[in-house]
Amino acid sequence: MLRTLWDNLLRGRNGFDSFSRFLIVTALVAMIADMIVGGSVLGQFLRIISLLLLLYACFRVFSCNIAARQRELIRFNIFVRECRYRYGKAVSLLRNHNIKEILHFKYFTCPACGQKLRVPRGKGKINVRCSRCGERFLSRS
Ligand SMILES: [Zn+2]
Question: Which phi and psi angles does 52 have, rounded to 5°?
Fold first, then answer.
């Protein structure tokens, strides 16, 4: 009974997707953080953020413009993939090098042969030459 009522409510609407779930979970985390910090300016800020996230999540769930919501979902998924990729890169960098190396060098992979390369940081745009295959490419240091 409740199930069909719910299904009728969501008929022709976007419904729950991973982006809306992410918004709701983030809003809940912000609410919990608000309870922990309590009353302060940061708490009020967190309360407003969590409220806005919840409103946006509701708007997405009940939106009839499914095409537009799908585009948002695709952008969100691309963003998540990018974050995972960067996170993975950061983790492997930390695993393979010490902090001093990371602060002073930038690490690359040669686009032609996959050789790992490093250049000193802070030299602006530089022409990197691969030590293994001789491939040259521009990169920011
Ligand atoms: Zn190479």
Answer: -65, -40
Q: What does pTM read for this prediction? A: 0.69
pLDDT digits (tens, 9 = 90+) for 110-141: 999 999 999 999 889 999 999 999 999 888 88
CA 116 to centroid of ligand 1, rounded, Å = 8
Give how far Cα 140 sits from Cα of 36, 87, 120, Å.
42, 20, 10
- The Å distance, Cα 131 to ligand 1 centre, comes to 7
Please name the residue ranges forming H helices in the chain: 2-9, 18-37, 41-62, 66-96, 99-104
Distance from Cα 90 to the centre of ligand 1, integer Å: 22
Output the CA 87–ligand 1 centroid distance in Å: 24
List C-alpha distances in Å: 78 to 2, 132, 135.
35, 33, 30
* Percent of the chain residues topping a pLDDT of 90: 61
> Alpha-carbon distance 25 to 30, whole Å?
9
CA 137 to ligand 1 centroid distance, Å: 10
Entry field: residues in the chain: 141
